[in-house]
Amino acid sequence: MDFQCRTCNQALNAEQMMKHLSATRHKTVFDISSGEDVCCEECQDANIHQLQIIRFGGEDMILLCNACFRKDYSETERPATSYSLQNGSILKFWERYVKVRECCCNICGEESRLNVNQTGEVLCDKCLPKSDKSKGFISEKSGRFLYIYLGLNETPNGTRKPSKKGGRRVGRGKKGEKDGKFKKDKKETVEDKISRIAYQVKKENSIIQSSSNSSLRNFKGFKAVESDPNIAISFNPTKANKSETKKNSSGSSNGKKVKENRTNMNKKSEKEVNKGKENKSRNKKNNVNEVNRDIYQIKAIPEAKKKVGNQVKAKFDLKNNVKPAEKTQEPQREILNAATNAATENTLKKSKPKADANPKINKNNKKGNAYTRESKLNLNAKKSTVAKKSNNQPDKTSSKWTVGSDADSSRESSVSPTEKANANNKTRNQQKKVNNKTAGTASKEKSVSPVTSKKSEINLNQDKDVEKTKNGRLIYEEGEPLTKYNAFKPTLSYPDLNTYLNDYSYALFLEQKLENDFIQKFSILWPRNGKETAFIINVDKNNNPELEKLLPPNLLALGRPAFNERQPFFFCTQDEQQIWYIFIKELSIQRGKYVLLVELFSWNNLRLPTKNGPSQFKLLPTSAQSSRILFAMTRITNPKFIDLLLGQKAIKQIYFDNRLKFSSDKLNQSQKTAVEHVLNNSITILQGPPGTGKTSTIEEIIIQVIERFHAFPILCVAASNIAIDNIAEKILENRPQIKILRILSKKKEQQYGDDHPLGGICLHNIVYKNLSPDMKLVANRARRGEMISKSEDTKFYKEKTRITNKIVSLSQIIFTTNIAAGGRELKVIKECPVVIMDESTQSSEASTLVPLSLPGIRNFVFVGDEKQLSSFSNIPQLEASLFERVLSNGTYKNPLMLDTQYRMHPKISEFPIKKIYNGELKNGVTEQQKAWPGVEHPLFFYQCDLGPESRVRSTQRDIVGFTYENKHECQEIVKIIQILMLDKKVPLEEIGVVTPYSAQRDLLSDVLTKNIVINPRQVSMEQEYDEIELFNAAGSQGASSLQNNVINIINGLHVATVDSFQGHEKSFIIFSCVRNNSDNKIGFLRDKRRLNVALTRAKHGLIVVGNKNVLQKGDPLWRDYIAYLEEQDVIFTDLAAY
């Protein structure tokens, strides 16, 4: 294979490559042997459709693009012999062209005044007389040089005077390389070329567009000084009032006064700077005097408010030289002074405001976006349920057990998209009216809110399983969201991209507060220019305990810096009512300090608070997941995807019969239609209920894209690793000739060794095999946690990066998770034409932004099921998926649905089909096909009322929580497993036990591990972790912690929560319902989606263990299910019936 296409990485000979380039319209190709691009000699244009090799008779051959050729030669000078892609000859003559270009004297290497004989020997005029074979040589000047040198047939007019000016070009061969005349490194290998290009692409894909020209060298600013806290009071409302003033009186005299005051302020600042250059001590005094003047002038605020309200406040700000804010959708709250702030925080710590119970609170909601305050998360609700953070310090680590997701069946909204849109408009109108309230009224109501909010919280908790400890802390049940967020309603559409990005940035801030600690000790340099978006933060490097938490000890020992360029942060006031989203533009280490030049992200609506000192702010670092999401927000430029996120325009859908030749004859009509739709549309939303062949459909989509588009790489992502692995295993088995790559997060790599079914295609295993022997030793030591030197770490990183770049660049299909798609491995991809996202409902919308922001996407496919569980987060906004929101807002009107299930026995699937999928799903298998020998009842409900449930309590950070277990059900489940093993001959590997509660999972695992029949060799229990998406650090409070995403494996038997078993299937499933109490409470078993997942995991047999009396009284859907079971006569009180 002589040539390789840079677009799709196909390697072909000259003839096949020219056909490939003509058919696919791919543009760039390179010579595999030398690694050299086929490009123009003059301008290095590599578009082969514009190139031609030109032969000037027997004198010379050159390679030029059409533009350079027309520029250099007139019509009379242009030769008749040309080799191009259009005439199918350019690559055939590539070797001859290179031979002519590299032609030089065989003895001295001279490139000019050459002579050649019939044997192809080349000598210059100086060396020719010295040679023994001086006869039979033809000179370049004869015009016949190339005919002899290349062995071409001489044309009749071949001896005519050449029309090319200047004779044969020199400086293109070995001598030209030495002189630097020709931009070509002949020694560059294929790997070197790939590494060089990968570096360039990675650099382009890592850039955050900056609106500031500042750097650490040219930054001009002043040190932030500690000022009177009252200065902060004037800061927030003035920006709001000024923005309102600018909107209401643009072009009026107020605008002129603003300009005049700006000019005066600039003049004043220039004078102060000049004085500072002359005398530093005098400058310090001036700064202090200026602060004192500001404090004196602030005292006039109350009187000004009494006279003319908001507009006088705007004028007052101008007197104080406070620069007006830009037009924003987010005015600011007041920053309280130290005493008021402390008192308010202590009050709020005991009670979280709930606007549903206190309409007065809502009057304080000024017009703005969600990121200004927690309550604004609920943009669609008339009132807010999110209170201010009561404590500036984040919570501590969570406990072992975790909470489930999607607590209520009520989360399945029955409101139509139209009704929701009307509610949105109504809410916006109410908010506009609220914005007209005066600041005095707002502050008055603000003092009342803590008392009222406490009442509202009590009302909200009356119907929940929420109690209180002796010290007043709330006790939460597993699966129930935190009280202050439980009335959240998602926003269906956004007016613009900045509003959208602000909304999700604020949600990320709320989540990161639960995971990371704030940095409080730093100093600030504010910019002199009021319009500047960059400033400097100085942080002590040595003996700083706040920084030790940012990096693990082994990396700190290697001298890794605690900060990196492009690293995002949240910069906020101490009361967290104002937040700036920033990233590190440039950093250095000077005199034991990190000097960070940080810049605001483009969607910030707040200007820098240059009147305030560092003690009034704090800095919140972000996790790797949040960092990748925030970076992805800067890369969303595709207009179609922006429309998709905003949710205001209908997504176009094209239906066209491509008359495809499908690779499998087992596809049903709904699967074929889905494949056709993907090829015709840039955005496809495909609903895939359980067992409907999503994996087979995705496999066919990938095959058709490869055959029709010849576009690589195809990226396949999902929230969980199990969903990705299912597709990868099927492709690996059915299409071994396709170059497949599996990329994992660092935490998962150790679980995918060489013995794993996908171990051979995992990037970390391939990289390890290609490491040099010395670097393999370093890698082994690093895996064992041993210390390695800084030089070894640097060499290891470089070699690992070089190998990674090559492997990723040559891959045709890449499988990874959503967050891992934002890693450095995929930064080397110039464009990613097709992205397929499986289990889209498990992917939070925030994490979906990562694959959605990759470069060059032409087709994006969402595959999911909104009737199954979504992800979980303590912040409800971060658990909703884009898949669900697009279906809810009505912009995707006719989603496709795979309508035939092949997994479940018809007796098992009958109820979910009827009650959950409204009869739109059908069975593709018969009862005979799914029958298991000896099993009479594929659906079996065991009435277990042997004793009540037990509550298990746990404390996590500031919250006391509880979960449930039922030891009586555990004992019966052991008996059922033994029946399946011994009587029904079911292998343990084909049995799964699922339960809603993590405590029951752990109790079952402990009992089964000790059981001699089930685990005769007393093998230790194994655990299979899966990173479901985002925010899974062990320190977070809710159900999304890693503990909930674990599957316990006892001698092949799988035990898991319902949430973590989504995406899995087994021949037999035992469902432990746990709940059995006199109050008939069933907690988050009420969730329709959780029940759907639990009932649809089994292929041949489903055994439900629980108390039917409690279940049917606890929820209407459970009442229907129990009634269905009674109709089928499959409820039994004795296991002998099984």
UniProtKB/TrEMBL annotation:
<feature type="region of interest" description="Disordered">
    <location>
        <begin position="157"/>
        <end position="187"/>
    </location>
</feature>
<feature type="compositionally biased region" description="Low complexity">
    <location>
        <begin position="337"/>
        <end position="346"/>
    </location>
</feature>
<feature type="compositionally biased region" description="Low complexity">
    <location>
        <begin position="356"/>
        <end position="370"/>
    </location>
</feature>
<dbReference type="InterPro" id="IPR047187">
    <property type="entry name" value="SF1_C_Upf1"/>
</dbReference>
<dbReference type="GO" id="GO:0003678">
    <property type="term" value="F:DNA helicase activity"/>
</dbReference>
<dbReference type="GO" id="GO:0000184">
    <property type="term" value="P:nuclear-transcribed mRNA catabolic process, nonsense-mediated decay"/>
</dbReference>
<feature type="compositionally biased region" description="Basic and acidic residues">
    <location>
        <begin position="454"/>
        <end position="465"/>
    </location>
</feature>
<dbReference type="InterPro" id="IPR045055">
    <property type="entry name" value="DNA2/NAM7-like"/>
</dbReference>
<feature type="compositionally biased region" description="Polar residues">
    <location>
        <begin position="377"/>
        <end position="402"/>
    </location>
</feature>
<feature type="region of interest" description="Disordered">
    <location>
        <begin position="233"/>
        <end position="296"/>
    </location>
</feature>
<feature type="domain" description="DNA2/NAM7 helicase-like C-terminal">
    <location>
        <begin position="878"/>
        <end position="1108"/>
    </location>
</feature>
<keyword id="KW-0547">Nucleotide-binding</keyword>
<dbReference type="GO" id="GO:0005737">
    <property type="term" value="C:cytoplasm"/>
</dbReference>
<dbReference type="Pfam" id="PF13087">
    <property type="entry name" value="AAA_12"/>
</dbReference>
<feature type="compositionally biased region" description="Polar residues">
    <location>
        <begin position="417"/>
        <end position="428"/>
    </location>
</feature>
<keyword id="KW-0378">Hydrolase</keyword>
<feature type="compositionally biased region" description="Basic and acidic residues">
    <location>
        <begin position="174"/>
        <end position="187"/>
    </location>
</feature>
<feature type="compositionally biased region" description="Basic and acidic residues">
    <location>
        <begin position="257"/>
        <end position="281"/>
    </location>
</feature>
<dbReference type="InterPro" id="IPR027417">
    <property type="entry name" value="P-loop_NTPase"/>
</dbReference>
<feature type="compositionally biased region" description="Basic and acidic residues">
    <location>
        <begin position="317"/>
        <end position="333"/>
    </location>
</feature>
<keyword id="KW-0347">Helicase</keyword>
<dbReference type="InterPro" id="IPR041677">
    <property type="entry name" value="DNA2/NAM7_AAA_11"/>
</dbReference>
<keyword id="KW-0067">ATP-binding</keyword>
<feature type="domain" description="DNA2/NAM7 helicase helicase">
    <location>
        <begin position="666"/>
        <end position="748"/>
    </location>
</feature>
<feature type="domain" description="DNA2/NAM7 helicase helicase">
    <location>
        <begin position="791"/>
        <end position="871"/>
    </location>
</feature>
<dbReference type="GO" id="GO:0003724">
    <property type="term" value="F:RNA helicase activity"/>
</dbReference>
<protein>
    <submittedName>
        <fullName>Uncharacterized protein</fullName>
    </submittedName>
</protein>
<dbReference type="InterPro" id="IPR041679">
    <property type="entry name" value="DNA2/NAM7-like_C"/>
</dbReference>
<feature type="region of interest" description="Disordered">
    <location>
        <begin position="317"/>
        <end position="465"/>
    </location>
</feature>
<dbReference type="Pfam" id="PF13086">
    <property type="entry name" value="AAA_11"/>
</dbReference>
<feature type="compositionally biased region" description="Basic residues">
    <location>
        <begin position="161"/>
        <end position="173"/>
    </location>
</feature>
